Structure formats: C-alpha cells, structure tokens
Amino acid sequence: MVDGGELLARSLRAAGVEQVFALHGGHLDSFWTACGRHGIGLIDTRHEAAAGNAADGYARTTGRLGVAVVTSGPGFANGFAALPNAMSDGVPMLMVTSAPPLRELETNEMQGGFDQIAAATPVTKWAHRIVTTERIPDLVALAVRKAFAGRPGPVLLEIPIDVLFTPVDETAIPQPGSPTVTDRPGPSPAAVSAGIDRLRSAKRPAIVLGGGTLWSDCGDEIAEFAEKSGIPVFANNRAIGVLPADHPCNGWGVDSLALLSMTGQPGPDVVVLMGCRMGLLTGGRATSFIPADAAVIQVDLDASEIGRLRPIEVPIVADCRETLRALLVAGAADDVQWPDRSAWLAQATAAHGLVEQMYSAAPAVDDGRLHPYHATREALRGAGEGAVLVLDGGEAPLWAAMSQHTVAPHRVLNLGYMGFLGIGQGFAIGAQIAEPDRRVMQVTGDGSYGFHIQELDTMVRHRLPIVTVVINNACWGMSIHGQDAIYGEGNDVITRLADTDYHEVARAFGGYGERVTQLDEIAPAVEKAFASGLPACINVAVAPGVVHPMTTAMLGDVDAQNEIVVPYYENLPKRG
C-alpha cells in the first residue's frame, strides 16, 4: 500500500525532478516526508510567490522543468503570482497545490471555499484537480508533457489532502506514459526552400533570437548557420547568450537595430524571427527595431504567433533547432551561394559599441551620487566571466544590460513580457540551486528589492552565496521619470522611497552587507561579498535624476499636440 504523497514524489523523480521549491503546509505532509526517500531536495522559501519564482528561475537556468509545491488557499493565492510571469515568457513549470478534502467542499472549510482550478486556468497551459489517488502517476506525467508541448509554459495540479493521504494498493495503479517526449517537429521542405531563397537575395538580412531558442537548445546550430551565411544575429533579452559572445556575427541586443536607424544607417531588409514573438521585446507596433518595409521570416512552434502585428512572408511552424539544421543542409547545396555581406555585417555588429561611446564619457557622479551606467558596469566587472546574472527592476536591468559582454545561454535571467518586478530574489535562488558551483549575482533596483527582501533568510538557511547589488536611487526610477516627463518635475506621486540601508538588512539575516558610494569601490565590494561565501547585499547609491534612454523611448511622444498621451503604449488620436 502506498499513499498519494509517495506517489507524487515517485512520479516527480521519474520525470527527472531533483529539486522542489516550496513553503510548508500541513496538507502536504505525506509528500514532504516522501521526498527524502526519492532524493528530491526541498528548498523552502519565506513566501510562496518566491517559491514559484525560484522554480521559474531554475527552469530558465537549466532548460528543465521547474517545480513549486504550495499549500491550499492562501498558499495558492500567494504562489499564483508566479504563474502569469511563467506563462507570458513560455517557461516550463509545474505548480502543485493542495486543497481541503473533497467530501468537505462547500462546508466553509479551512483554506478552501474557492475554485483554485478556475483561478489558475487563464494563466496556465493546463490546470487539473486530481480526485483519485491511483491517478497521480499518469496525471503528473501528463502535466509534464503539457508543460513542454509546443510553446512551453506553466501547468498546475491540485491534489486534495484526502487524495494525498489515502493509501492505495500499488497493483491497482495504472502505468503512466513517459513524462518526456524527445522528438521535435521539423519544417516542411517548401518552407526551408523559401527561407533560403529569401535570405540569399537579401542585401541586409538579420536574425533575431527569442526565448524559443533557449528551450530548443540550438546554440551550436545558430552559430554555424550565422558563420556560413554571414548574417548578423541579434537577441531579445530572453535569448542573450544563445550565440557565443565572441562570435563574429554577434550583434547583441535587438535594440542595436534601433541604434542603426537613429544614426542614419540603413536597417535590415529581411529579418528572421527565430523563436521570437512580435511584441514588447521587438518594439511592439513601432518600426524602430524591425523596419516597416523589411520582409519577415518567422520560425515558431506556435502557429498563432506567426502574423501577430504584421504580415509574415515565410512562415515556418517548427522547432528552432530542427529548422536551423534543415537550413544548414539546404544552404550547403551545390547551387546555393551566400553573397559577400562583410560590409553589412561589420556595420550591424558595430551598433552595439555605440552605447559605450555614448556613456563611457558621461560623468561618473551626478548630483553627488553615482551614474547608474558606470555603477552597473563596475558591478558586472566584479562578478567576472561565467556568472549567472539576474536582472530585476525598472531601469536597473536596462543599465546592466548595456554592459553585458561575456554571457552564455541560460545565464542572464531578465524581466519578460509581464515586466514583473520583484522576481529577482526567487530567480536567483533557483539559479543558484541549479548552478551550485557558479557565481550568481542579482542586479536590482531598490524598489524591486523590497518585494521579497525576506528571502535573504532563505539564502542564509540554504547556504546560497548569492550577491545582490542594489542600484539604490531612493525612488521608483522608471515611474518617477515618466511622471516628470508628462506632468513636469516636482509633480510626481507615490514614486519616492527612503534611502534605506538594505545592506544592514542582509547583515541582520546573517549575510554580508556593504554600502558603496565611490565608483572604484564597487568591483572590490562585489569580490569581497563573493569571498565571504554568504548571501550578500552591496547597496550602491546612484543618482535618481539620470533617465535611461529606453524609458524615454517607451514613453513615446509626450509632447504630442493632437493626440492623447498614453505612456508606454501608442498614443490615441483626439476626437472632435
């Protein structure tokens, strides 16, 4: 006889799960006690949202399934916050929650009284209530397959306490199907031929990588295809590092395409969106990243994404790695000759260097505090090569992104389509569990740091030597800069924060803390923090008045006379 907790632990281990991020709840005791028998580590956080974010961060760092287990009612309600973030960014994650006994539904029972499955359905790929103990193994396997099927995403299983605690005859349990399917869909020969023909005839082609390339594990293939075709490669903030940093075709962030147009240079005439969706991370409806007259080739597992916002000349519904392999084969044919694009390649890849030219000469100090560009650059220098970088906040991650130079796949965890501030602590915990021998550094704004500062306790208890650099401008930077631009300086509302001693909070939890006010102190402080072997907070005082250019770009035309200004989105035409 085995109970539901044993079956859940056994099923997760069969799916390759080694770590579960959690916060205790008595509903789940039969599962907690079974984890040790199956070699599953339990990383307990101080808030269920952080547990969900840690599972998300673990998945982003490893490319494997992240698992969070939280109790019913308030535990689910807290953990819920992690689901839409994973859903928006296409991250394979399983959240398991408990529930009151099935026989006590509608009795005003403890930690019940609402439909958790109904609540989770809009923000997951699949949400299901298990009502029979014998079904736990096959439904867990189904959940894992759904998390990875097509475009990845989060799934949720609810297992009521009576289902988890009930013992059943092991011989009555149906054999589950494998939780993993390794086969991937390839492109049609016609689509490959059309893509090759369009790229051969292009004068200024470009490839833009998105999050789909991370889960496809196509780094080797994109490197080979870019080298043979001579096409520059850019990436949205999900895919930085998929192409090796030193690859001659690496153009870095997709915003470099906007820099080309800003400096009067021609942009691409053909763009390949490789696992990259149209939307926020490609400039939305604006044409600053992808010119309006550029032809687009889009590769995506989700056919519904192909054609979002603009027509697509060559649609390819397939896995990125399989598509690149097919393109490599087609491109090696005797009748395929790639034109010499060395001039375009040099021009396109040089755009990234314009950022350093713009800001390297900026004063290191502004109004008595450090310039955030210089501060984040020094922080990243202190982390060194090979570190996992977790970027959280409004403008703080934008400044840090300007100085990313040596990164690899799955080593930069950033905000995605939700712009979900406060995920950094959980992401960093998940990343450090995934990469125990690698440095993990979080760069965050002071506003974001306050969401889950209690997770310093989690880091201390689990001996996770994560170093957090707080870019402290004592305000919600992007928010106050937006209000200043629209309403005039001094008219900001609820956007100011105290210049808090966050480093002292780290010390109080048993970690390392240091406040830095001088530029040349930042990298040494980061080194000392890592050398301490403790969770650490380096509190860096930066100037609140410096505005990141992306904030200005996202605000749009705030001086428009014949439009209704809608900051961060398209302005509306005035009526009447």
List the helices and strands and how they pair.
Layout: E1 2-3, H1 4-14, E2 19-22, H2 29-35, E3 41-44, H3 48-62, E4 66-70, H4 74-79, H5 82-89, E5 93-99, H6 116-120, E6 126-129, H7 136-148, E7 154-160, H8 161-165, E8 167-168, H9 189-201, E9 205-209, H10 212-216, H11 219-229, E10 233-235, E11 250-253, H12 255-262, E12 270-274, E13 295-299, E14 314-316, H13 320-331, H14 342-350, H15 353-359, E15 365-366, E16 369-370, H16 372-383, E17 388-392, H17 396-401, E18 412-413, H18 424-434, E19 440-445, H19 446-449, H20 455-461, E20 467-472, H21 477-487, H22 502-508, E21 512-516, H23 522-532, E22 536-541, H24 549-555, E23 563-564, E24 572-573
Parallel strand pairs: 2-3, 2-4, 4-5, 5-7, 6-7, 9-10, 9-12, 10-11, 12-13, 13-14, 17-18, 17-19, 19-20, 20-22, 21-22
Antiparallel strand pairs: 1-8, 15-16, 23-24
